[in-house]
Design goal:
By secondary structure, the protein is of the alpha/beta class. It contains eleven helices and twelve strands. Helix 6 links the parallel strand 8 and strand 9. The radius of gyration is 20 Å and the shape is globular.
Length: 357
């Protein structure tokens, strides 16, 4: 029965644990409907509870364990009342992203038909693009230091690292993706002010661009591009950006979608040397955790991205259609989208939709 995939399931904290079962339910339905592949799910209950018990978010050999999997399906992390966020993040999700060289952070931004986004005059036809964020270096490479700490002479240095390898591979990924989409690409830059890093970024962009004459490509300064997200989102197809720029742009894009409970993200190692990680963009949402009203759609959508990356595009499309149909019908939605349904009810309805296709 076709390919077999081993998936490491990390529900994590808070609503991560609540939305994960719905992600798995819909993945299983995609598997059942296509009957062309099989998945094994192995659960790892790592996260803040483990930290409170053992002092570790995950075991010392976690990466060794995870490396054996085809893919990682991740819920959310964070218990801000008891553990500082930089600990939960830096001891759990970030070591996975870095250790597995997941250099592409892919965030599809699409306003689902039936929903109102945050822009008054823009509908689903106007908001359908992808932000590709460089995920391993640039402004977040962690190079720097502080001297004369807490004195009047104190100095803080945070250095941007842009390597040719790192810049080339993210831009090339963007062009390849644009080829499969509407063949438009925007490279986010700031070469007027950052005369070293971003002039270099632009040079690499020009080189890669020359290999893809069929792509309508342009570069745009990050400030103007941020404004364009709001004023002309219909002109966007694939947006490629450095770590910091991409971080900001992808949240701005996410805001256009209407609810944080919808936005998925993929952390990819495209060469498949290491497993990739698929997760909702949102965190553990302590304000609603335990109430079973979290929207499971971001988790389910992340599952669709995972199926697509594994090569199961038929199942990926079925799961996505299940989301689209459920949202368009608008009968069973969680409170963040104006409905009254529970997390489980939304997952069940999406799963039933998939079964009926
Ligand atoms: P958050 O994303 O957890 O929540 C922000 C707001 O959006 C809250 O009002 C929440 O109720 C709402 N929300 C989020 N997901 C939702 C969903 N599926 N359905 C309905 N409403 C939803 O961000 P916040 O509150 O800033 O952080 C909480 C914790 O999560 C912190 O510890 C933070 O470090 C962590 N975090 C973890 C991330 C991850 O696991 N990748 C990403 C972002 C934050
Ligand atoms: Mg962010």
């Amino acid at each position: 029965m076709g390919n077999h995939y081993r998936i490491a399931v990390l529900p994590g904290d808070g609503i991560g644990k609540e939305v994960m079962p719905e992600g798995l339910r819909t993945l299983r339905m995609g598997e059942k409907k296509t009957a062309s592949f099989h998945m094994t799910f192995d659960f790892y209950p790592w996260g803040s509870d483990t930290f409170l018990d053992t002092g570790r978010m995950m075991p010392e050999d976690a990466l060794k364990i995870l490396k054996e999997y085809d893919s990682i399906y991740f819920g959310a992390v964070g218990l801000p009342e008891k553990i500082p966020d930089h600990i939960t993040l830096w001891k759990f999700i970030l070591p996975i992203r870095q250790g597995f060289d997941q250099y592409i952070n892919l965030r599809p931004i699409r306003l689902l038909p039936g929903l109102r986004g945050s822009l008054r005059d823009k509908g689903p036809a106007d908001i359908d693009f992808v932000v590709i964020r460089e995920n391993t270096e640039g402004e977040y490479s962690g190079a720097g230091g502080r001297v004369h700490i807490h004195s009047d002479q104190e100095v803080a240095v945070q250095t941007n690292i842009f390597t040719r390898t790192g810049t080339e591979r993210v831009l090339r990924y963007g062009f390849e993706l644009a080829r499969k989409r509407r063949k438009k690409l925007i490279s986010a830059t700031k070469s007027n002010a950052c005369q070293f890093s971003m002039v270099f970024w632009d040079e690499v962009y020009d080189q890669i661009k020359s290999v893809y004459p069929e792509i309508l490509a342009e570069k745009c300064h990050i400030d103007a591009l941020a404004a364009r997200f709001v004023t002309h989102p219909e002109t966007l197809d694939v947006v490629v950006a450095s770590n910091l720029f991409g971080d900001i742009l992808s949240d701005l894009g996410g805001a256009l979608q209407g609810s944080l409970g919808l936005a998925p993200s993929a952390n990819l190692n495209p060469e498949k040397k290491f497993p990739s990680l698929f997760e909702p963009v949102h965190g553990s949402a302590p304000d609603i955790a335990g109430k079973m009203i979290a929207n499971p759609i971001a988790m389910i959508w992340a599952g669709s991205l995972m199926l697509d990356f594994l090569g199961e595009s038929e199942a990926a499309t079925l799961v996505m259609r299940g989301i689209d149909t459920t949202v368009l019908q608008g009968k069973v939605l969680t409170p963040d989208l104006g409905g009254k349904a529970s997390t489980t009810q939304v997952g069940q309805v999406i799963s039933e939709q998939i079964e009926q296709f």
